[in-house]
User: Fold this.
Amino acid sequence: MFRRDVVGGMGALGAITLTGPSFAQSGDGFYVPPEEARHQRTFMQWPVNRRVYPDPVFLDMAQQTIADVANTISEFEPVTMLAAVSDHAGARKKLSDRVELWDIPTEDLWCRDAGPIFVIDGRGGIAMRHIQFNGWGEKQVNTRDSQIAGLVAERLGLDLLPSGLQGEAGGVEQDGHGLLLAHESSWVNDNRNPGRSRDEIETNLLRAYGADRMIWSKGVWGEDITDYHIDSLARFTGPGRVLINLPDDLDLSDPFHVAAADTYDRIVAEGLEVEVIPEPVRRRIASIDFVASYANYYVCNGGVIAAQFGDGETDQIARDTLAKHYPKREIVTLNVDPLGEMGGGIHCATQQMPAV
Assistant:
């Protein structure tokens, strides 16, 4: 059903000029630049909460996986790990000396959702946009994690600019050139933004990201903790250019397959350039709830950090496709199965601070 080649033509991959947005910025002049623009550092969070991780063996696996991701990224750019000072000694045993530890208490590891969202104004200014994290609609303890953005802003001495929204950055994908992509289920949801219409939420998201256009698809309500975050399905790799992770065989009884097909159809109808990576078939973790997303990768300075799932054929397709979309970066793939077992991936666990 889905083509692995490109719909609309790729053009010259990598020929992107990152000199600032060609669209109307937010009223305060700030916007979120593309993830592939140069970073000052990467932020991550150290998982510790025993209500979230009642099994100490799995907690140790989660911590080791986060350390593996942080250590890998630190070979390309500085990494700051957020953790309560009482957790620093345990974290340091797994982390490279290149990874800096800050005393900002955490519960879980999903820095894309609970962590800071940085915005720049193209004139050397930088601030943080505040989309209030509430544990994906109060589905999980977030006493510490809901405070992280404010504490990072305070530590850096940056303004924390309100968005008027509750939600997570993993629930909206942006190309840094004026276009946003999201599932309604992650935003138009009473567990995050009760009583708000899609139009109201869209207005706030466009202002928050300094964008001027948004593509919505329905998504899936209530079947996973995130209400189907877009960053596990589709990612911008340049202005108006999308990489999407889809099954070769669509199961119409699976709400995620149906929603993924809807998202694919919508972005194609909008005239975007779309390339498909197939989902892995022979993977190490067979659980139906396991998130096996090649799209949930992270772009850092000079590198792309991505998952591999043990399917030799699709792992190689994903690596080759990422190399085509990011031709001047080293592609590094990691076994991050514990993240997939928890419903996320590498992108979910990272948040970039752009260079200015």
Observations:
- The chain is about 25% helix and 25% strand.
- Residues 9-24 have pLDDT under 50 and may be disordered.
